[in-house]
Design brief:
heterodimer; A: mainly alpha; Four Helix Bundle (Hemerythrin (Met), subunit A); B: about 575 residues; about 65% helix
């Protein structure tokens, strides 16, 4: 667009970033998927014909939640760092984000292991099992996809391919991670607070 | 990418000879790996037209079976597969692909851009959609699962629970259906994201939002609506697969699940889907009607506002498909009123189209004929829609042929008519040659007559109580002759579509050369050569009004003087 030498149009021509627009559109679509799963979860609360019930088996994952939510802060700091060209700081905060995400996923794995082997709750046990594993699993899938993306960016940063001029793209990807964190607030509230 | 084929095309001009095997492979390879929005648009539309013929043939089979009581043209099992595949194919593989193909081809050209915002995502989306279509049709041969049952999906395109449960639909047919729609759904989602990013971020200088051609506006609104309508279907399909494969209980009534929840989830997708299909069709009419009336569109801002209004209202009307399921009277009243509300923005649109034609210098070329047919039929479709939105009327006629007639009036009478109009209008741009007007007139009149014989009559068998999706009926119901007439109308439409297909093929080789701007139109795509080069515009265009080519052709009386 900037190739036009002399423009007859006086006003400056600014358009929104296509990456940001597309990521926001993707987030809108993903939100609709989560909405359907959340609605199903809420609708089926207390409708299981057999146990175990959420109150019997679910412990509130405070530590996991704090880790995941603080990863949103660490990625925000990483965004600021790359914007100012501080690549070392960016790399450290980015790695911390990955570590926090890994802790969250590890915590989910421990929780699921306990639910399956100690409490005997699987996806086919009852409606609670079906909706719980679907909703939390859908979110965990998004965390895993996010972690893969974050790790790829870290690898490219280590090999020197990510530079200051990529800060906008980094911010676009970070939008996705913020979305994953924000969805967890909803899932956490519905599953561990309202549903218990 | 597309540039790679250029040296070969150039060398062919010099020494015309038979294409060697390597050249054919090179040509094929060029189409498979292309990321050019124009080529992908063509792929979408060709893919859609092929499936239009397939799903049309399925409709013919259904009509032969129903032409007379006690027919055994199809077996009962095959009949269920036919109406399921007809519906699924027409909605997902014909409507969506052709309309998104139009968007792919036209949106960048209309806003003066080089390509879509994300060309590779664009190619990915097309091949996902294409793979989804192949997957669902592969079920005809690969669907045999447990107990030797299955073949193609046979649960209806709405696939109500609990029929879709493992116990009632053994085999893999239903799994193919669910998986294919998830795969195609991801493709659709990718395209929708791409169109939104393109329309918002790729506009040429001066192309402010309120100067965008209405087709681009309609595609922008449609894509935004797609984001929140296709995804609930994807979510519901994932739940269905969890039920079928992992033993989940979402729709398993014996374990406390609810079949009605599936209905809600399906129609939260299913009703807005109608608007996802019809709004691009509105967009096509918005481009064609002004050009063939030689007037600027009447009430441009009102058209934009009405489109956004339709998108919003359409999200809150889904349960009008479920009046007979039983809801509270508050629920009934809400969905009756919200459904009637759709009539206001669509009424505004019809008013504006009529006002655009009013006093214009009308040219009755084939694209305009199809658009006029659309206007008339869409009005009737809207009126029967308001009738069906009244809950007591709906209790009487739900799941009857009256409903079938109503939604075919929308899907065929409005959407397919506008798709045909669009193909006649833009074919010269895409191929450089005009479609034959003679064959076009034959196509239009035969299709119009066949359409009205079929779908007008369907209203009456509906009144007489004929339910949808039945294999056959008893001779003493009084439906015999009407059904025979409906089937005759269907055959006439089939012949018309074959004429159209023939027209597409023979005009490609023998059609009159079109030139850049055969219709004397006003939007940017007509300023490029036909077919447009891979780079679209040699210099980035600059736009001063809603009709840039009018400004160019009439420098003494440009539009921007009058636009606010």
């Amino acid at each position: 667009m900037s190739a036009i030498p002399i423009s007859p149009v006086a006003e400056p021509w600014r358009l929104p970033s296509r990456g940001r627009v597309a990521m926001l559109a993707l987030i809108t679509g993903e939100s609709a998927i989560f909405t359907i799963f959340v609605v199903a979860y809420i609708f089926y609360i207390g409708k299981s014909l057999t146990g175990p019930t959420p109150l019997q088996v679910l412990d509130i994952p405070w530590f996991n939640t704090i880790c995941l939510l603080s990863s949103s802060v660490s990625i925000l700091i990483a965004e600021r760092q790359i914007e100012r060209g501080k690549m070392r700081g960016f790399m450290m905060w980015w790695a911390l984000t990955i570590a926090l995400g890994m802790i969250f996923i590890g915590g989910t794995a421990v929780e699921w292991h306990k639910l399956i082997y100690v409490d005997g709750l699987t996806i086919r046990t009852n409606l609670f099992g079906t909706t719980f594993y679907s909703l939390v699993g859908l979110h965990a899938t998004h965390v895993v996809v996010g972690l893969i993306g974050l790790s790829l960016i870290l690898i490219f940063t280590l090999t020197g391919h990510v530079k200051e001029q990529h800060s906008e793209r980094i911010q676009v990807f970070a939008l996705y991670w913020h979305f994953v964190d924000a969805v967890w607030v909803v899932v956490f509230t519905v599953v561990y607070i309202v549903g218990r | 990418m597309a540039d790679q084929t250029l040296p070969i095309a150039g060398s062919l001009d010099v020494t015309p000879q038979r294409l060697s095997r390597a050249q054919v492979l090179e040509w094929l390879h060029g189409w498979v790996v292309t990321v050019d929005h124009k080529r992908l648009g063509i792929l979408y539309v060709v893919y859609g037209i092929i499936f239009l013929l397939v799903a049309g043939a399925e409709a013919m089979a259904i009509r032969i079976q129903l032409a007379w009581p006690g027919m055994h043209f199809l077996s009962p099992e095959l009949y269920n597969e036919m109406f399921t595949m007809h519906g699924t194919t027409m909605v997902f593989l014909v409507g969506m692909t052709i309309l998104f193909g139009f968007a792919n081809y036209l949106v960048p050209l209309m806003i003066g851009a080089r390509d879509m915002a994300f060309p590779r995502l664009n190619a990915f989306s097309f091949w996902m959609t294409a793979f989804g279509g192949l997957l669902i049709y592969y079920s005809f041969i690969g669907g045999f699962g447990l107990y030797g049952m299955g073949a193609a999906p046979d649960v209806g395109w709405w696939a109500y629970a609990p029929l879709t449960a493992r116990a009632f639909s053994p085999g893999h047919a239903t799994d193919y259906w669910a998986l294919a729609l998830i795969v195609a759904g991801f493709g659709t989602l990718g395209t929708a994201i791409n169109i939104i990013a393109t329309a918002l971020s790729m506009r040429c200088r001066g192309m402010s939002l309120l100067r965008m051609p209405l087709f681009v506006w309609l595609m922008l609104v449609t894509s935004a609506l797609t984001l929140i309508t296709i995804t609930p279907l994807t979510a519901a399909q994932i739940m269905l697969l969890i039920d079928r494969y992992l033993g989940g209980h979402f729709f398993d009534t014996q374990a406390g699940g609810s079949a009605v929840v599936w209905m809600h989830f399906f129609w939260i997708f299913g009703h807005p889907e109608v608007y996802v299909l019809v709004m691009p069709a509105f967009g096509i009419a918005n481009e064609i009607i002004p050009v063939f009336s030689r007037k600027a569109i009447f009430g441009y801002p009102a058209m934009v506002a009405a489109s956004v209004g339709i998108a919003f209202v359409s999200m809150g009307v889904w349960a009008h498909h479920m009046f007979t399921v039983g809801m509270t009277s508050v629920g009934n009243a809400f969905f009756v009123l919200s459904t009637m509300l759709v009539g206001i923005p669509t009424g505004i649109k019809i008013f504006n189209w009529v006002a655009t034609i009013w006093g214009g210098k009308i040219r009755f070329a084939t694209p305009m004929l199809f658009c006029l047919g659309f206007l008339f039929q869409f009005l009737i479709a809207g009126l029967t829609g308001i009738m069906l939105s009244v809950a007591p009327w709906n209790w009487q006629l739900h799941n009857s042929y009256f409903v079938i007639a109503h939604f075919h009036y929308v899907l065929v009478g409005a959407i397919v008519f506008n798709i045909f109009a669009g193909i006649y209008y833009w074919y010269p741009k895409v191929t450089g040659r005009m479609l034959s007007e003679t064959l076009g007139k034959w196509h239009f009149w035969l299709f119009l007559i066949g359409f009205h014989i079929t779908f007008d009559t369907m209203h009456f068998v509906g009144f007489l109580g004929m339910p949808r999706s039945i294999y056959t009926y008893e001779p003493d119901r009084g439906w015999n002759h009407l059904n025979f007439i409906i089937s005759i109308g269907g055959m006439i439409q089939g012949i018309a579509v074959l004429i159209f297909a023939w027209n597409l093929v023979q005009s490609y080789f023998r059609g009159r050369k079109a030139g850049n701007d055969p219709w004397d139109a006003w939007t940017l795509e007509w300023s490029t050569p036909s077919p447009p080069p891979a780079y679209n515009f040699a210099t980035d265009p600059v736009v001063h009004s809603r009709r840039p080519l009018w400004d160019l052709k009439h420098p003494e009386d440009p539009d921007w003087k009058y636009e606010a």
